Amino acid sequence: DVNDVAPRFSDPSYTLFVSEREPVGFFVLQLRATDPDSGYGGQITYSLESHPSGDTSPTQLTRHISDTSRESLSYFECDEHTGQITLARSLNYQKSAVHQFWAVATDQGAIPLSSRIPITIHVLDYNDNAPQFDQSNYQPNVDDDGERCSYRVKLNERAPPGTFVTRLLATDLDSNDTLRYRLVADETRHSEYFRLGHNDGILYWAPFRKQDGRISFPHLRSKAELGNTPSEIVDIPLDAFRLKVEVSDQLHTAYCLVHVEMDAVNYAAPSFPLPKHEVWNVPEGATHLGRIRLATDPDRSNFGKITYALVGGHGREHFRVESTTGDFFALEMLDRETVSHYRLLIRATDGGKLFDYMTLDLNILDVNDNRPQFTQSTYE
C-alpha cells in the first residue's frame, strides 16, 4: 500500500460554546479522523495550529481572528493520540469572546499527509465583574466613607423641583447585564430631597415627593408659607447635600458619593424691622449711644451677610455706626446747647449689593454742664 490518501475528519468544521466558568482540564471536543491507508500511513495524530495571516486556503479563517489565533491556542490542549481537546487555562470573555484555530490530522507515512478543519469556540459570558462608575469621577484620595468614586455638582438653591442635577454613568464588562441605580438612605435623610432614575442614573432635584416617588408640584410649601403669604419658593435646610448611590447588576454592586453644593442666590434684600424708624434720647456728652435694631436677610452665604453704614442726615460727620454690629457712636462731645436734634439715615447692604434704609432721630438731653453766668461783668 502506498500512502496516497490524507486523513479525513468526520466533520468539515466545529463550532462550540464554552462558559468562561469552566475549569482548567474541562473537556471541550473530541476530534475524529479516518485514513484508509494501511500501516503507518493509516495511523493518525492530532494537533492544533494557529491560523497564519494571509492564508488563502478555501477554509481560511477571517483575517480579524487570524491575528489572535496564536494566543487562542494557549487556552487549549490537544492529546495527539486521542484527539481530545481540553482547556489549558481559564477562558476570559472580556479578553476574548471568540477563539478560532485549525485542528490538524496527520498520518505517519514516510511522506506524511495531513488535513485540517477550522474550529470556532464562542466563550459564554458569566457575571463575574462588578459594575464600575465612570473612571473620570474617581478621586485620588479615598473619601470619608471609603468610596473612591465621587461626583461634585452645584445646584441653584432656587431651582424648581424636577431640575436635572447630574447623570451617574456606570458600565459592566459582562455582556447582557442590566444595571440598576438607587439612592442609599442613611441617617442624614439627604436622599429624600432627590430622585434617581433606576435605569438611566439621572439625578433630579425633588425636595417634595409623594410616596410613589413622583414630584408633587401642587403641594409645594416653603417654611415661610406656613405662617405668612403663600410662596412657591422651596426653603432649603442645608448648604450642601451628600448622597450615596448604588449601582447593581443584580449580583455585584458598586458605590459612588455625590456631593451637591447649593449655589446661593441673592433673591432677598435686607429688611429693617418696621416701622424702620427709631427715636433715641441720649445725654449730651455720651459716646456709645446704643445699637440700632438689626436688619435681617434670609439669603445664604455672603448674600445673607449685612453691613451697616451712615449715609445721610445733617451732622452725620459727628457719628459712626459699626458696620457689622450696628453699634452707634458719637465721634465728639454732643452739646444740646449747640444742636439739640439730629435726623440720620442708615443703610443696610447685603453681599449682593441689595439694601434697605432706616431713619434714626437723636434727641440730645440736657446735662447740667454749664455754670450760671452774670449778664454783665460789673454792676455800679
Account of the protein in words:
The chain has helices at 63-66, 69-73, 223-227, and strands spanning 8-9, 14-19, 27-30, 33-34, 44-49, 76-78, 84-87, 98-107, 114-124, 132-133, 150-156, 164-167, 170-171, 180-183, 194-196, 202-205, 240-248, 253-263, 277-283, 288-291, 306-313, 319-321, 327-330, 341-350, 355-365. With 380 residues, it is mainly beta. The chain has a four-stranded mixed beta sheet with strand order 2-9-8-5. Strand 15 (194-196) and strand 16 form a beta hairpin. The protein is rod-shaped. Mean pLDDT is 83; it is low at 53-67 and 209-233.
List the helices and strands and how they pair.
Elements lengths: L7 E2 L4 E6 L7 E4 L2 E2 L9 E6 L13 H4 L2 H5 L2 E3 L5 E4 L10 E10 L6 E11 L7 E2 L16 E7 L7 E4 L2 E2 L8 E4 L10 E3 L5 E4 L17 H5 L12 E9 L4 E11 L13 E7 L4 E4 L14 E8 L5 E3 L5 E4 L10 E10 L4 E11 L15
Parallel strand pairs: 2-9, 11-18, 19-25
Antiparallel strand pairs: 1-4, 3-7, 5-8, 6-7, 8-9, 10-13, 12-16, 14-17, 15-16, 17-18, 20-23, 21-24, 22-23, 24-25
InterPro entries: Cadherin-like_dom, Cadherin-like_sf, Cadherin_CS
Main location: membrane
Protein name: Cadherin domain protein
